[in-house]
Amino acid sequence: MQSRARTPSPRALFSAVLILVGSTAGPASAQQSITDVLTFLLTNRSIATGDFVRDEQAAVATRDLLARFLALELATVPVSSSSGGFTYRLDPTLGTVVRSSDSFGPFFAERSLTSGRNQASLAVGYRSTTFDNIDGRNLRDGTMVSTASILRGEAAPFDIETVALRIRTDTVTLTGNYGVTDRLDIGGAIPFVRVSLQGQRVDTYRGRELLQATGSASASGLGDVVVRAKYNLLRDGASGLAVAGEARLPTGNEQDLLGAGRTTLTPRLIGSYERARVGIHGELGYSFREVSDSLGYAVAVTVVAVPRLTLVGELSGLRLGGLGRLTETTQSHPELVGVDTIRLTGVEQTTDRILAVAGVKWNIAGTWLVTANVRRPLTAVGLNAGWVPTVTFDYAFGR
C-alpha cells in the first residue's frame, strides 16, 4: 500500500501531456512554407547550364522526393502497440480476472492479445530525430551535389553547386486504448509535430567557394491522427491470432510537411507465440493511399527479465511501391561544346526499408510503465538518422 501512495496520479499524467503539447504545438515560425524554402535551396543559382527549365524541373523533382521521404517518416511515426503493457482476461476456473501475460509486449509491433473488457490505457511519448543522410548521401556536410558542369572526358566537374540541409523533427504522441470486450480493442493516437529546416547552397568554381543561398523554416502543429481497432480471433493462453485495421487521417499541414495530405488505410494480420518468459510476435499489413502504397511487416521478441521488466527487440520493414530514389542525370550542354551538365533529381522506383528497435519496458509502480528504446535504420533508402531515441510513459486504468 505504501508503494501505491507514491504512485503518480492520472491527473499528473494529463498535466505532463498539456505541458508537452503546449511546448510543441504552435503556428509556423517562418514566413514561407518548408516546401518553398526547399525549392529555393535546390534550384540552380550560378551555373550557366543554358536550360533553366530543366534546372527548375530537377529542383522540383528533388524537392518533391525529399518532401515525400519526410512525409513518410511522419506518416509512419511508430505508435505504441494498441494493447498497452497490461492485458487481462477472465479465468473461468478461478471466476476472476487475471493477467493474460507477464510480458508487457512489444513497442510498435502488435501482439494478438487485447487489453480486456473495460481496460483502458493512456500513453504519452516523445521522439526527436535529426536526419543526417538521404539515399546514402550526407545531408549535413555540404557534399551533396545539386548541379555541376563537367568537361567531357574529365573525372571531376570544374563548376559544382552543393547543398547542405539540417532537418529535425520533434514529435509528442498521445495514445489511448480501450477494451470494448475481452476480444475487441479500439484506440487512437494524436501526434504533435515540430519540423525545422536550415540549409545553404555553395558554388565551387575551380576550387573557389562562394555562398549562393541560405534559408530556414520551421513549422509545428497537429500531425496525422491515427484511429485503429483490433480483434482477437484465436487465443491459447498468451498466444493466438488477431486482425487489426488502422486509418491515418490527413489532419497535418501538407505544405509544412506535418502530414501526408491523404487518408491511409492499413489492414493487418497479427500472430503471437508466448511462453512463460519469451514471446515472438509478427504482423503483416498493407497500406493504401499512403505517401506510397506499401507492404509492411514486423517481428518482435520479448523476454521477461524480471516480473517488472521486459526486454524487447524488433525488426520492421516496408516495401514501397514507386516512392522513388535520388539520382544524378547527365545531359549535354545545349550551347557549350564538350560540356555536360549534371543535375540531382528523383526517379520512381520500388524500394525497401528495414529498421531495428531495441529497449525495455519497466513497470515503475502500480500500473505505470516507462518505455525507452532506440531505433536505427538498416538500409540507406530515404531520409535516415543514426540512433533515434523514444521515451513513453504509459498508465493503465481499470485494474
Strand content: over 45%
Which of globular, elongated, flat, extended, rod-shaped describes the shape?
A: elongated
Report the biggest beta sheet as strand number plus sense, adding barrel if it closes.
12 strands, antiparallel, barrel
* CA(first)-CA(last) distance: 15 Å
Which ranges are low-confidence, i.e. pLDDT below 50, for 5 or more consecutive residues?
1-8, 12-30
Mean pLDDT reading: 83
Order of helices and strands: HHHHEEEEEEEEEEEEEEEEEEEEE
Radius of gyration: 24 Å
Question: What is the count of helical runs?
Answer: 4
Give me the side-by-side strand order of the main sheet.
Answer: 3-7-8-10-11-12-13-14-15-18-19-21
What's the β-strand tally? Answer: 21
List the helices and strands and how they pair.
Layout: H1 2-5, H2 10-24, H3 34-42, H4 52-75, E1 88-91, E2 96-99, E3 120-131, E4 133-134, E5 137-138, E6 144-151, E7 159-179, E8 184-205, E9 208-222, E10 226-236, E11 239-248, E12 264-274, E13 278-287, E14 294-306, E15 309-320, E16 325-332, E17 339-347, E18 351-365, E19 368-377, E20 383-384, E21 388-397
Antiparallel strand pairs: 1-2, 3-7, 3-21, 4-5, 4-20, 6-7, 6-17, 7-8, 8-9, 8-10, 10-11, 11-12, 12-13, 13-14, 14-15, 15-18, 16-17, 18-19, 19-21
Helix pairs in contact: 3-4
